[in-house]
């Protein structure tokens, strides 16, 4: 008898979960059917982005080392470029790319400074550093010696 009650409670819990998922899906479908302007959709996306107050950015360097920094979501992306430049052993020109992006990350948009939130870098992102010059003489290691001494292994 107790086993039947446990099974009935589990079934009721599963039923509530299914109902919640179904109503969530219906709401998403209804939302997608609505005709809305691009400005309104951007406003909704901005509202979702503004929830995050910090941005954790990891930059994979050409030598495989990952540089990590934490920034405020409202800070300007130019701070990220200063952070990376200060960490490099030699101040060579570089570009930052998102994983699937073919266009480098820009610190301004239409002449206005971009924030981490407006660049969709909050709450976290992984970027790749690529040297702007096509020369094969990359410094190994890429980071300054002081930073390499304090490096932590991410493996085991």
Automatic annotation (TrEMBL):
InterPro entries: Ubiquitin-like_domsf, UBX_dom. This is UBX domain-containing protein. It holds the Pfam family UBX. GO terms for cellular component: cytoplasm. Signal peptide: none annotated. Residues 9-31 are annotated as: Disordered. PANTHER family: UBX DOMAIN-CONTAINING PROTEIN 6 (PTHR23153:SF38), UBX-RELATED (PTHR23153). Residues 50-129 form the UBX domain. Residues 16-31 have a biased composition (Basic and acidic residues).
């Amino acid at each position: 008898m107790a086993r039947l009650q446990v099974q009935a409670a589990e079934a009721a819990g599963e039923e509530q979960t299914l109902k919640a998922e179904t109503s969530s899906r219906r709401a998403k479908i209804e939302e997608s059917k609505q005709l809305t302007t691009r400005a309104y959709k951007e406003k909704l996306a901005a509202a979702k982005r503004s929830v995050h107050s910090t941005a954790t950015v990891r930059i994979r360097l050409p030598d495989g080392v990952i540089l990590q920094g934490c920034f405020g979501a409202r800070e300007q992306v130019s701070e990220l470029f200063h952070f990376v430049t200060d960490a490099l052993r030699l101040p060579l020109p570089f570009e930052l790319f998102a994983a699937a992006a073919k266009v480098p990350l820009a610190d301004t948009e239409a002449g206005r400074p971009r924030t981490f939130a407006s660049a969709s870098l909050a709450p976290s992102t992984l970027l790749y550093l690529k040297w702007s010059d096509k020369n094969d003489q990359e410094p190994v290691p890429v980071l300054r010696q002081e930073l390499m001494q304090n490096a932590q292994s991410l493996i085991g």
